[in-house]
Write a structure and sequence with these properties.
16 helices; alpha/beta; 7-stranded parallel beta sheet; 6-stranded parallel beta sheet; Rossmann fold; single chain
Amino acid sequence: MRILLWHGYLLGGTGSNVYTRALAREWSRMGHEVVVVCQERHPELYDVGGARVVVPDLPGGLLPVFVLDEYEGLHPKLLQDFTQAELDAYVTANASAIDELLPADVVFTNHVLLGGAVGAASRAPFAVKAHGSELEYSMRGNERLSRWGADVLAEAQVVYVGSEHIRRVLEDVVGHVDRVHEVPPGVDVEEFTPAPRDAALAALIDESHRDQADGGERHPDPANAVRFARFFADEAPTVLYFGKLIENKGVQVLFEAMRGLDARAVIVGFGDYRETLEAQAPPGTLFTGALEHRHLVHLLPLVDVAVVPSIFPEAFGMVAAEAAAAGVPPVVADHSGLAEVAAGIAGAYPEDRRGLVSFPTGDAGALRERLRALLELPAGERRALGLAARTAVERNWSWSRVAERLLEPFGN
C-alpha cells in the first residue's frame, strides 16, 4: 500500500511525535510505501524505516500547538488563539502538500484538529487519529473548535482512539462520532528491554557523549555524560519520571511523595514548569533535560520504579508501558488512559501485588506507600514484577500489532 502519514509536528520527543515515527517505521518494515508529512527539520536523526519525509512551508511560519514549546524555524501559537484566516491558511498549505503526493491507498492524519481539517480539505479519503491533547488542551470548552472537529470527523473514513477514555472524551467534546475504532498506541519491545546495570550505564554515558552541546530546551542538559557517571556510581534506590515538565503532569505530587523515603529521583523532560520543580525537588534529584529513546532505553534499567503522576487526563499511559517493557515496575495515577494501562499490567502481577500499579490521583501519601512497598521488596522480587509487566506489554501493546490493526479497516 502507499500510505501518506500526516503529522503537523516533529518526530522526536513524546506523545504523537513518537507515535508517528513508530508507525512510519513499522509500516515500512511491512513493505508499504510510506510518506510522512511533518515539520521535522532533522529526519535523519530518527528511524522511520526508509519512509520519505516531506516538510511543507507554513504561512508566516505559524504552527498551531496545544502546549507552547520552542520549535526550530517556526512560530508556535496556541491553536485556540489562531484567527480563522490563519487556520485557513495553515490547512490549505498542508492539504496542498497532501494533494501533491497523491495517489495513496491510505491518508492517515494525526489529531482531530488540525489533522482532521487537513484531511477534509485534501482531495483524498482520510482517517484521523485522536490523541487527546488537542481535545483536552485546546478544544474542550471552545464551541468554535468543537463544532469544527465534529464537521471534519463526519467526513473521515475511520476515526481512531487509543483508549476507551479517549473515546468518551471525544464524544464529550465534539458529540457523537461514527466509525470509531479503538487501537491503543504501541511500545517498541525490541528497543525497550531489560539490561544488565553495568552495560546500561556504559551505553547511557556513550549516548550522552553524542549529545549536542547547545543545551536547548528540546536537547539534553550539557555534560550529562559526566553527571550520569557520578549519579549512578552507587546503586541507591532510584525513582524515574520522564515526560513533559508542565504542572498537569504532576511531578510535584511525586516530590511530595518522596519526602521521607530513602530514595532519589531522576527527572527527564522539558517544559515551562521546570524551574518551579527544581525549587521543589528533594535533595539529590537529577534533572536531565529532554532525552530521546536512545537514552531512555539505557536509563530505564538503572532505576527501580517509574512513576506517571499526572493530575490531568491522559490518552494513554505510553511512558508506563515503555518502562514496563524495560522491566521496570510502573506506578501511575488511577485515571483516564493511565488506568487502562495499569489494569493491563496489574493483570500480569500476582494478586497480592496488583495494588502497587496505581494510586488515587494527586494523593501523595498513597503514592508514597506504593513506592515504599516496591522499594522495600527484595531486588529479585521487584525484578520479577518488572518482567511480568513486560509480558503484559508484549501481549497488548507491541508496535507491529498496532500497525497491523490500524490498516485492517482498509483491507490489509
